[in-house]
Design brief:
- The chain folds into two domains: 39 residues, no CATH class; 44 residues.
- Helices cover 63% and strands 0% of the residues.
- It is built from five helices and no strands.
- It is mainly α and 97 residues long.
Length: 97
């Protein structure tokens, strides 16, 4: 992992949001209102589990959001379908082991 100093330099040169939490204390980052908002929100986040089954979550969830947003399905119906799809995919993953 890059040092706080390197991450801060990349932020200054390119504007990339740092993945290094300690780098958020750098003065250049403290004065950036957009980065400050991202930093505040990141404190509320919960990391996704690092397990193979997570691959089964993303596409059904994305599909459900799109169905709900474009009015093709009510949100609950779309999410219920996503849960059914992802559980089936997870079962398939476990059967193939």
């Amino acid at each position: 992992m890059a040092s706080e100093r390197v991450v801060a330099r990349v932020f200054e040169d390119v504007g990339t949001i740092p993945a290094h939490l300690g780098a958020l204390q750098h003065p250049a980052m403290q004065s950036d209102p957009d980065l400050k908002g991202f930093a505040e929100q990141s404190s509320l986040g919960i990391p996704s589990p690092n397990i193979p089954e997570m691959v089964a979550v993303w596409q059904p969830f994305t599909d459900a959001v799109m169905l709900a947003l474009n009015g093709t399905a009510e949100p609950k119906v779309a999410l219920d379908l996503a849960v059914s799809d992802l559980l089936e995919t997870i079962e398939d993953l476990h059967r193939s082991k």
